Amino acid sequence: MTRFAILFFALSLCAHAATEADVIVYGATPGGFCAAIAAAREGASVILLEPTAHVGGVNTGGLCFSDSNQTVRSTVLGLFDEWHSRVEKDYQRRGVELPYKVSEKDHKHWTYEPHVAAKITKEMLDEAGVKVLTKRVLKSVIKDGAHITKLTTSEGDFAAKVFIDGTYEGDFMAAAGVNWTIGREGRKEFGESLAGKQYPKAKMAISGLGTDGKPLPLVTTTDAGPDEAGDKNVMVYSFRLCVTKDPANRVPFPKPANYDPARFEVVRHYFAQEKRPHQLWDLYPLPGNKFDANNGIGKQFSMGLVGACNGWSEADEAGRAKIWEAHKQYTLEMHHFLSTDPAVPVAIREEYAQIGLCRDEFPEYGHWSPQLYVREGRRMIGEYVVSQKDIMDEPKKDDAIVVSSFPIDSHDCQRVGTGEMVVNEGTIMPVRIPGRRHGYAYHIPYRAITPKAAECSNLLVPVALSCTHVGISSIRVEPTWMILGQSAGIAAAMSAKQNLAVQKLPYPALRERLLAQKQVLDLPVLADLPPEPKGAVNIDPKTLPGIVLDDKQAELKGEWSHSSGFKPHIGTGYLHDDKRGDGQSIAIFRFKAPKRGKYDLRMAYSAHETRATKVPVTIESGGRKTEIKVDQTQPLPAGEAFRSIGTVELDAGSETKITVSNTGTDGFVILDALQLNPAKD
Fold it and tell me: How many Cα atoms sit within 13 Å of 156 on the Cβ side?
């Protein structure tokens, strides 16, 4: 072999040799970059690979309104707390006063701008010595038995002792042959009451079908399937756009190509029947006179393109690009519709016309967020599956790596339409500890981020971890994912140093290092709630004098939603009509008065400015009919659970019928309880 041939052969070997590190993290989400920083701080050499050009996931891609305000903030420390402290200091150095202090673990909103988040993220990665490589799309994973030896990307091969999947979608663990699931479990599978189909939002009394009998655009199905059953639907994705009304920084929304006004026909139906129309996007105030625009979990139509995210996780690069563009097109079209269509109320049109993108954010992407908000992707089937019981009933674990306390909540999964109604399905409204502003505090065990040992021995999965759909509905926020990533990075560095399978890493040693990196692992001891005013909470109807008619005794027609958020209330809660005012929500009470005479009719309700001012109440007794209109914005007498609404005459022995409805009402109709006491002369 000639000298030239030998040299060429040697160079070829070098060109195809894998780049090596102790730990390789694939996916630069907040969970991924925290894993990389934590591993590097433990002395490991670390490479962070990202398939796109964007580092930081939604934390640097538009989500600028920290979800930690709904957690027990004293437990979300470590890198999450450090990251926010650095954001705060960056603003302080520039003389910008923020409306919060990271040192105060209250429930204020922690906010920031995307470019500041990106700056802090880069600084922390650089300081830790993490090698960050973007545009490295995963092609394959090579294993020797259960041991990963190498991953191949679009731009080279990489080898490590331990690997971490930091993607929202679970791409690496799927390529490594680890078992996973996607979608929603049925209620019986893990005994979860919040599994299966969920209908907390009111049915809209509008048609979801076109003149051809087919579902209108934005309606995903005419049949949601059995209530108890699971399915493959994933909660809605959307963008977290950074927008502004400031003319000096506002860039107009691009006009959507091929805009089709027919796409929003079902939204026109909605506005035509909505008595109190409101903004369809959630707009959270940010520094710099900006807003974080988000999908509204409680809204009927919003930024999320319901149903379009199904298939994202399983798709290849081209498939995801197509889904990404579909979400962008929908968002552009919806803004155009909301700012121009005559069916939209004038005040709403005018507000959306003022909203534009921010000139000083994402200039390399035309000021549009490069990150789609992937709320839920694949979920590993690992050594332990976190489910509803682990959150609400059995929170303590012996191998805890994070304390999570975000409420269980899921955005819409599908939109059902028939000729008579449209209803969003899949929403789990935030499940909090009663009386508190955060969810249930619980441990996530180390076993939930480790694959089964027979499947893979040197991989950790802190983002697409092992849990149910109900579980991920609480876990799925960046504070939790960042701390999970930090825990995975520490565990990976320790496993690499000791040449141990990740499942064999001794937990006491891991716990010591987690605490050294300023994590909190003990469940919080919550302060006692202040005592409620006398008679304010869950008043037992049996303890009250006179004739008491609780909402549970009513014969209901139409749609009513249950709640217990406002107090006082009688029994276990109350019903409301979602302020539809369509005359379809009717409650009928039937009873016999013990004796003939005049009675003081009293109503229990939670007074508020959003309540209806003319709730129709009809009393029929002994051939007499009395009609009363009740203003539920009027406060109750101090210290009382009922307000007198009129005097009625009742017959003895014969049936009395009281009807409450939402006919022609202009706000929420509250159905809690009625009380009748003999009137005083």
Answer: 17
